[in-house]
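Amino Acid Chain and Its Fold in Token Form
===========================================
Scope: a single protein chain, as residues and as a discrete description of its fold.
Amino acid sequence: labelled as such and written in the usual single-letter residue code.
Position: the record begins directly beneath this header, with no further notes in between.
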Amino acid sequence: METEITNISEIAISYIPSFVEDAVIRTSWAAQAVLRRFFPQETIHIQERFLIMYLNKANKVLGVFPMSIGGISGTIADVRLILAVALKAGATNIMLAHNHPSGNLEPSFSDLDLTNRVKEGALLLEIKLLDHLILAPEEGKYYSFADEGGL
């Protein structure tokens, strides 16, 4: 006896780019300047956020995805979601960024572990993790995994 299937969801994939500015990222300084705009100044010193910047092959910014908003000392980043959005946007390069409200720019074990997991997963999809930035609340103060040899 065959069962009739009537309630199956359709999956739609869409990405609508909007190039408000032609931001091309060549340095960690340029990346943190673009990303810092997505960290509200009124909460950057009390609440962690995790963002991903997606770029094309020429390092032109395709968009920024707000992964999560956490608490005082942590937030969550899902590797599968990071990479799913990269595929949806047609990104060939990605940059991770989160803030440390304490101002301590030393990467935690969790920061190191996540960076490695994203890097490994991205490689399987031929996507390059260019950097992982940790921003302090103070303007211009940040840590770059790429600059420090961590990528």
User: Anything to note?
Assistant: Residues 24 and 138 are 24 Å apart (CA to CA). Helices lie at 28-36, 79-89, 109-124. The longest strand covers residues 61-69. The radius of gyration is 17 Å.
